[in-house]
Specification:
single chain; about 180 residues; alpha+beta; Alpha-Beta Plaits; about 15% strand
Amino acid sequence: MKTREQKHLDLAALKEEFNQTGNALMVSFQGLSVEKDGELRRALEAANLKYRVIKNTIGRLAVEGTPLESLKGEFKGMTALAYSESDPVGLAKVLSKFAKENPKLTFKAGVVDARAINVKDIEALASLPSKEELVSKLMFVINAPAQGIAVALSGVARNLAIVLDQIAKQKAEQA
């Protein structure tokens, strides 16, 4: 059994961890088997996301004064917190996919960039493209005008070469 001092140290470490993240989704896992919980943990770990089952009293104390403070009133029942420092979309995608396959995992609340979101917003967040997809689309949009100019300029040079070649053939035929 932990001593009071150990519990205070654990609470301070948890509070410090929550201070460094602004993205979290709170879930209820009541009725979820240990095997399924292990699958969820492996899926989150593979995506470099964190997941903790937290006692409600400790959770309420740990989120005080952190970007996750809006979750304070949601610590009721069996509660777990999945969080990420920088990727709320990836977090929502992994959890939403798992929740569709395992209906016993339900969303309670969420925080994105230190702002509270409701359960409906989590599905909208999960449907967004990932950061990498957005960057590649942006790079395509930025590159498209330059690529269009290059194609147009090469077309002019190509057409000029074709016309000059035809003139040379015509002069050769006349001579």
